[in-house]
Protein backbone atom coordinates (compact mmCIF):
# COMPACT_ATOMS: atom_id res chain seq x y z
CA UNK A 1 0.00 0.00 0.00
CA UNK A 2 1.35 3.43 -0.93
CA UNK A 3 1.89 5.89 1.85
CA UNK A 4 -0.35 8.94 1.88
CA UNK A 5 1.30 12.29 1.35
CA UNK A 6 0.66 13.23 4.98
CA UNK A 7 2.30 10.05 6.29
CA UNK A 8 5.29 10.48 3.98
CA UNK A 9 5.66 14.01 5.30
CA UNK A 10 5.79 12.71 8.88
CA UNK A 11 8.38 10.07 7.91
CA UNK A 12 10.51 12.72 6.20
CA UNK A 13 10.27 14.98 9.24
CA UNK A 14 11.22 12.09 11.53
CA UNK A 15 14.28 11.43 9.37
CA UNK A 16 15.20 15.12 9.49
CA UNK A 17 14.90 15.05 13.27
CA UNK A 18 17.25 12.09 13.51
CA UNK A 19 19.85 13.60 11.22
CA UNK A 20 19.83 17.00 12.93
CA UNK A 21 19.57 15.84 16.54
CA UNK A 22 22.41 15.54 19.04
CA UNK A 23 22.93 13.76 22.35
CA UNK A 24 25.58 14.81 24.87
CA UNK A 25 26.62 13.84 28.40
CA UNK A 26 27.98 15.78 31.35
CA UNK A 27 29.17 14.47 34.72
CA UNK A 28 28.98 16.40 37.96
CA UNK A 29 30.00 15.74 41.57
CA UNK A 30 33.06 13.78 42.71
CA UNK A 31 33.97 10.32 43.96
CA UNK A 32 31.80 7.23 43.65
CA UNK A 33 28.48 9.08 43.62
CA UNK A 34 27.87 11.25 40.56
CA UNK A 35 25.12 12.87 38.53
CA UNK A 36 24.96 12.22 34.80
CA UNK A 37 23.12 14.86 32.78
CA UNK A 38 21.97 13.96 29.28
CA UNK A 39 21.07 16.76 26.88
CA UNK A 40 19.04 15.96 23.78
CA UNK A 41 18.52 18.55 21.06
CA UNK A 42 15.95 17.76 18.38
CA UNK A 43 15.92 20.08 15.40
CA UNK A 44 14.64 21.91 13.48
CA UNK A 45 11.06 21.93 14.75
CA UNK A 46 8.58 20.21 17.02
CA UNK A 47 7.27 16.87 15.71
CA UNK A 48 3.65 16.22 16.56
CA UNK A 49 2.78 12.78 17.96
CA UNK A 50 6.38 11.58 18.34
CA UNK A 51 7.65 9.41 21.20
CA UNK A 52 11.21 9.60 22.52
CA UNK A 53 13.23 6.84 24.18
CA UNK A 54 16.81 6.89 25.44
CA UNK A 55 18.57 3.53 25.66
CA UNK A 56 21.59 3.53 27.99
CA UNK A 57 24.18 0.74 27.83
CA UNK A 58 25.95 0.85 31.18
CA UNK A 59 29.42 -0.65 31.78
CA UNK A 60 29.97 -3.02 34.69
CA UNK A 61 31.84 -0.35 36.67
CA UNK A 62 28.69 1.82 37.05
CA UNK A 63 25.24 1.18 38.46
CA UNK A 64 22.00 3.03 39.14
CA UNK A 65 20.13 2.48 42.39
CA UNK A 66 16.50 1.50 41.65
CA UNK A 67 15.44 2.39 45.21
CA UNK A 68 16.96 5.87 44.89
CA UNK A 69 15.31 6.36 41.50
CA UNK A 70 11.93 5.34 42.94
CA UNK A 71 12.31 7.84 45.80
CA UNK A 72 13.14 10.61 43.30
CA UNK A 73 10.38 9.74 40.83
CA UNK A 74 8.16 12.65 41.89
CA UNK A 75 11.01 15.08 41.15
CA UNK A 76 12.11 13.54 37.84
CA UNK A 77 11.09 14.44 34.29
CA UNK A 78 11.38 10.84 33.10
CA UNK A 79 10.41 7.24 33.83
CA UNK A 80 12.98 4.46 33.78
CA UNK A 81 12.86 0.74 33.03
CA UNK A 82 15.71 -1.63 33.96
CA UNK A 83 16.42 -4.73 31.88
CA UNK A 84 17.57 -6.75 34.93
CA UNK A 85 17.84 -6.69 38.71
CA UNK A 86 20.67 -4.55 40.10
CA UNK A 87 22.92 -5.85 42.89
CA UNK A 88 24.16 -2.77 44.71
CA UNK A 89 26.97 -4.49 46.61
CA UNK A 90 28.99 -6.61 44.17
CA UNK A 91 32.30 -5.25 42.82
CA UNK A 92 32.78 -4.45 39.14
CA UNK A 93 34.64 -7.66 38.24
CA UNK A 94 31.79 -9.84 39.54
CA UNK A 95 28.97 -8.28 37.57
CA UNK A 96 28.18 -7.31 33.99
CA UNK A 97 26.77 -4.27 32.25
CA UNK A 98 23.05 -3.66 31.90
CA UNK A 99 20.50 -1.60 29.97
CA UNK A 100 18.05 1.08 31.03
CA UNK A 101 15.20 2.49 28.97
CA UNK A 102 14.44 6.11 29.84
CA UNK A 103 11.12 7.61 28.77
CA UNK A 104 11.09 11.43 29.09
CA UNK A 105 7.99 13.19 30.41
CA UNK A 106 6.35 15.84 28.27
CA UNK A 107 2.85 16.99 27.37
CA UNK A 108 1.63 17.64 23.86
CA UNK A 109 4.18 17.54 21.05
CA UNK A 110 7.66 16.21 21.70
CA UNK A 111 9.94 19.09 22.75
CA UNK A 112 13.00 20.16 20.77
CA UNK A 113 15.20 20.27 23.90
CA UNK A 114 15.46 17.78 26.76
CA UNK A 115 17.74 17.65 29.79
CA UNK A 116 17.65 14.61 32.09
CA UNK A 117 19.74 13.98 35.20
CA UNK A 118 20.40 10.48 36.53
CA UNK A 119 22.21 9.69 39.81
CA UNK A 120 24.89 7.08 39.07
CA UNK A 121 27.33 5.24 41.31
CA UNK A 122 30.74 3.69 40.78
CA UNK A 123 31.46 0.10 41.79
CA UNK A 124 34.53 -0.97 43.72
CA UNK A 125 37.25 -2.48 41.53
CA UNK A 126 39.80 -5.20 42.11
CA UNK A 127 43.05 -4.02 43.72
CA UNK A 128 45.77 -3.18 41.22
CA UNK A 129 49.10 -5.03 41.26
CA UNK A 130 50.55 -2.68 38.63
CA UNK A 131 50.70 0.40 40.82
CA UNK A 132 47.62 2.02 39.28
CA UNK A 133 45.73 4.25 41.71
CA UNK A 134 42.60 4.76 39.58
CA UNK A 135 40.42 2.79 37.16
CA UNK A 136 38.78 4.60 34.25
CA UNK A 137 35.15 3.75 33.45
CA UNK A 138 33.71 5.05 30.18
CA UNK A 139 30.03 5.93 29.79
CA UNK A 140 28.72 6.18 26.24
CA UNK A 141 25.84 8.48 25.27
CA UNK A 142 22.47 6.71 25.11
CA UNK A 143 20.93 5.58 21.85
CA UNK A 144 18.26 8.03 20.71
CA UNK A 145 15.13 6.17 19.60
CA UNK A 146 12.09 7.79 18.00
CA UNK A 147 8.75 6.61 16.72
CA UNK A 148 5.41 8.05 15.64
CA UNK A 149 2.13 6.39 14.78
CA UNK A 150 1.91 8.73 11.79
CA UNK A 151 4.88 7.00 10.11
CA UNK A 152 3.96 3.32 10.10
CA UNK A 153 6.84 1.99 7.98
CA UNK A 154 10.01 3.12 9.75
CA UNK A 155 12.20 1.08 7.39
CA UNK A 156 11.60 3.74 4.76
CA UNK A 157 13.86 6.02 6.78
CA UNK A 158 17.21 5.32 5.14
CA UNK A 159 20.58 5.20 6.92
CA UNK A 160 18.94 4.63 10.30
CA UNK A 161 18.29 1.20 11.81
CA UNK A 162 14.98 0.01 13.22
CA UNK A 163 15.02 -1.77 16.60
CA UNK A 164 12.43 -3.33 18.89
CA UNK A 165 12.08 -1.87 22.37
CA UNK A 166 9.37 -1.48 25.01
CA UNK A 167 6.55 0.83 23.90
CA UNK A 168 6.20 2.32 27.40
CA UNK A 169 7.76 2.01 30.83
CA UNK A 170 5.14 -0.62 31.74
CA UNK A 171 6.95 -3.02 29.37
CA UNK A 172 3.67 -4.68 28.42
CA UNK A 173 4.48 -4.71 24.69
CA UNK A 174 7.27 -3.90 22.24
CA UNK A 175 7.26 -1.40 19.39
CA UNK A 176 9.48 -0.61 16.44
CA UNK A 177 11.70 2.42 17.00
CA UNK A 178 14.08 4.10 14.58
CA UNK A 179 17.56 4.65 16.05
CA UNK A 180 19.77 7.59 15.31
CA UNK A 181 22.97 6.56 13.55
CA UNK A 182 26.11 6.77 15.66
CA UNK A 183 27.73 10.19 15.80
CA UNK A 184 31.20 10.37 14.29
CA UNK A 185 32.48 12.15 17.39
CA UNK A 186 31.26 10.36 20.49
CA UNK A 187 30.62 12.51 23.56
CA UNK A 188 31.44 9.71 26.01
CA UNK A 189 32.49 10.69 29.52
CA UNK A 190 34.88 8.94 31.89
CA UNK A 191 34.76 8.34 35.63
CA UNK A 192 38.03 7.89 37.49
CA UNK A 193 37.52 5.57 40.47
CA UNK A 194 40.18 4.84 43.12
CA UNK A 195 41.45 1.26 43.42
CA UNK A 196 43.35 -0.47 46.19
CA UNK A 197 47.04 -1.39 46.08
CA UNK A 198 47.18 -5.16 45.49
CA UNK A 199 50.83 -5.35 46.52
CA UNK A 200 49.83 -4.34 50.06
CA UNK A 201 47.32 -7.18 50.43
CA UNK A 202 49.65 -9.50 52.39
CA UNK A 203 50.88 -6.66 54.59
CA UNK A 204 47.35 -5.51 55.42
CA UNK A 205 46.11 -9.06 56.06
CA UNK A 206 49.15 -9.87 58.19
CA UNK A 207 48.80 -6.66 60.19
CA UNK A 208 45.08 -7.27 60.72
CA UNK A 209 45.73 -10.84 61.90
CA UNK A 210 48.50 -9.72 64.28
CA UNK A 211 46.32 -6.96 65.74
CA UNK A 212 43.46 -9.44 66.23
CA UNK A 213 45.73 -11.92 68.03
CA UNK A 214 47.18 -9.21 70.32
CA UNK A 215 43.67 -8.04 71.23
CA UNK A 216 42.53 -11.61 71.95
CA UNK A 217 45.53 -12.32 74.19
CA UNK A 218 45.12 -9.02 76.06
CA UNK A 219 41.41 -9.62 76.57
CA UNK A 220 42.01 -13.19 77.73
CA UNK A 221 44.58 -12.05 80.32
CA UNK A 222 42.20 -9.38 81.60
CA UNK A 223 39.35 -11.89 81.94
CA UNK A 224 41.57 -14.42 83.78
CA UNK A 225 42.99 -11.75 86.07
CA UNK A 226 39.54 -10.52 87.08
CA UNK A 227 37.98 -13.96 86.91
CA UNK A 228 35.46 -12.95 84.31
CA UNK A 229 34.04 -16.07 82.70
Helices and strands in order:
Elements: H1 5-20, E1 22-28, E2 33-41, E3 50-58, E4 62-63, H2 66-71, E5 78-82, E6 98-104, E7 113-122, E8 134-139, E9 143-148, E10 161-166, E11 174-179, E12 189-194, H3 201-225
Antiparallel strand pairs: 1-2, 2-7, 3-6, 3-9, 4-7, 5-6, 8-12, 9-11, 10-11
Description:
The protein contains three helices and twelve strands; from the N terminus they run H-E-E-E-E-H-E-E-E-E-E-E-E-E-H. By secondary structure, it is an alpha+beta fold. The protein folds into two domains: 194 residues, Immunoglobulin-like, CATH 2.60.40; 31 residues. The strands form three sheets. Strands 5-6-3-9-11-10 form a six-stranded antiparallel sheet, covered by helices on one side. A hairpin with a 7-residue loop joins strand 10 and strand 11. Belongs to the PIGX family.
By CATH reckoning, the class of the largest domain would read: Mainly Beta
Q: Give the mean pLDDT.
A: 84
How many beta strands in the DSSP annotation? 12
- Along the chain, the helix and strand elements come as HEEEEHEEEEEEEEH
The biggest sheet, with number of strands, parallel, antiparallel or mixed sense and barrel status, is: 6 strands, antiparallel
Condensed summary:
One of its GO terms (biological process) is GPI anchor biosynthetic process. This protein is α+β, with helices and mostly antiparallel strands and 229 residues long.
Features:
Immunoglobulin-like, 2 domains, 6-stranded antiparallel beta sheet, alpha+beta, 229 residues, 21% helix
Amino acid sequence: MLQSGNEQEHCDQLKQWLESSSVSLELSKKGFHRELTTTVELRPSVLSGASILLLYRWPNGIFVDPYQLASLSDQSNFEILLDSAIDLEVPAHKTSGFLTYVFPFYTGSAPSFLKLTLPVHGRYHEPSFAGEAFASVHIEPPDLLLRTEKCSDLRRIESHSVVDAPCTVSNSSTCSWVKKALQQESSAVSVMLPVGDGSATMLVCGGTLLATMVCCVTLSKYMLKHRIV
